[in-house]
Amino acid sequence: MDTKNIEMITRMVIESLQKQQAQEQKNGFMVPIGVSARHIHLTQADLEVLYGPGYQLTKKKELMGGQFASNELLTIVGLKLRAIENVRILGPCRKFSQVEISATDAMKLGIKAPLRESGDIAGSAPIALVGPKGALYLKEGCIIASRHIHMSPKDAAQAGVKDGDYVSVKADNDRGTTFNNVKIRVDESFTLEMHIDTDEANASGIATGNTVTIVK
Ligand SMILES: [Zn+2]
User: What's the mean pLDDT when you consider all of the chain?
Assistant: First the structure.
């Protein structure tokens, strides 16, 4: 190939890459949605109170980052003795027990659950758990989980964000909702996904598998 042809091809490739980049910037960084239904994380000790000594969670479905949805379900009870049945436990067991519910669930249970990041449970709402072999009262641990985006370091570089950043995200559907205060969480084990609860999903007309765009 002569020099002239090489120059021409190089220019075409560069132009096409620039066009693609401009289009991507215009569209924003796309993120698939995962809607989180109400769920429970337990310590091994608390699991044994509810299911008996030595009990191990059984796997129903793999989730990202080595987590899984278990087959085990509990009834959660608020202080006014209003209950929600069949709330799934996610595994593996953790250092702290935690119950994540929606704002609608909190109203149904008569609980003042604060909006928190997962794991931040100090001073959160009390709740009772009922299992097949026992019951448990948690003095704190019930929260409404704040929305967030999981991503790998590679995704973060592409999106131009870093761990701990807050972004806005736009859903381009009939309702056209923009979500502010969405926390970015970066880890090698994460698959790109934005987690919202069932209230947020229903209010904005978004379902698992739909995509939203980071608008920053
Ligand atoms: Zn999440």
Answer: 94
